[in-house]
Amino acid sequence: MPDVVGNYRRIVAQRWPGWWVNWPLSKLIEVGDIFVATPDKLVRAGALTTGFATRVGASIPSFEHDSNGDVEIAFGPAAGAVDARVQAEIRFKRGDAMLVAYDGLTQLDVADAAEIAQTLLRQWSAGGWSLDRVVVTSVVTAAAGVLVSGASESGGSVRLNARVGAGAGPFTVVDLAMKFELDRSTARNDSWTVEACTPMYQVVRLKRTFLRKVEEDFGMKQGGRGAFPTDVPPALISYVGDHPERVIETLPPGDAPPATADA
Questions:
Q1: N or C: which end of the chain has fewer CB within 10 A?
Q2: Integer Cα distance of 8 and 139 in angstroms
Q3: Which of the two residues, 204 and 78, has the higher pLDDT score?
Q4: What pLDDT score does 247 carry?
């Protein structure tokens, strides 16, 4: 059987290199979300609600991928429908072919990396931050998305339906994400139509090398492991503000666990 998740991640990574690709698509991820990163999955562990500002990045009207033409889409009236319904039949020339489309893509980022670095250091000092935790600093959200893949090694087809008004159309690939729903008689677990989704995101973590230096130079230890100042020294906070890149690191796609899970 085709590797649906692997193929999907490769498709998205080609357009957004350096980003973690969200799976499953139904999991909404936001800037400030905290996860515990295990080898198998990301487990949600809360969110930072204060201590940082955000800024809107680039907006992209849409994204489409059809496996270099190995996916064909035929729009027409839904068979047997008594109301204004349109059907889209998606045919796959190869079993590993995939159709991916997103509409209304917007990037949102942490405005100042120094704010996140200072916040995480304070939480670590107070004993509230374990080193297997990561925090989301950038997301690309979509107003809607669709993913359908070939049924088997020999290919297959999937149908989507939409109830539309008179005179609607012509339809495009992006309309599949915004206006159509899967026909469950043909859909499988590797077919999705979602709204308000997060196709990709970036996370950071505290650098272990920096924390070792903090313990050596300032005599600080994390809460629960020994004595430490109640407040992080102002000189250290100032240093972190000037050099956040020495305190936190963005994790590469290769470090991303296979799936996201709620706590």
A1: C
A2: 18
A3: 204
A4: 97
pLDDT band at 215 (very low <50, low <70, confident <90, very high): confident
Name the pTM for this structure: 0.86
> Are the CB atoms for 192 and 146 separated by under 8 Å?
yes
> 106 near 56, Cβ under 8 Å?
yes
Identify the residue with better confidence: 159 or 242: 242
Structure tokens at 261: 């899970």
**What are the backbone angles phi and psi of residue 181, rounded to the nearest 5°?**
-125, 150
3-state secondary structure labels for all residues of the chain: CCCHHHHHHHHHHHHCCCCEECCCCCCCCCCCEEEEECCCEEEEEEECCCCCCEEEEEEEEEEEECCCCCEEEEEEECCCCCCCEEEEEEEECCCCCEEEEEEEEEEEEECCHHHHHHHHHHHHHCCCCCCCEEEEEEEEEEEEEEEEECCCCCCCEEEEEEECCCCCCCCCHHHHHHHCEECCCCCCCCCEEEEEEEEEEEEEEECHHHHHHHHHHHCCCCCCCCCCCCCCCHHHHHHHHHCHHHCEEECCHHHCCCEEECC
Q: Is the pLDDT of residue 25 over 70?
A: yes
Torsional sign, CA 225, 226, 232, 234: negative
Q: 93: closest CA among 173, 158, 172, 150? A: 150
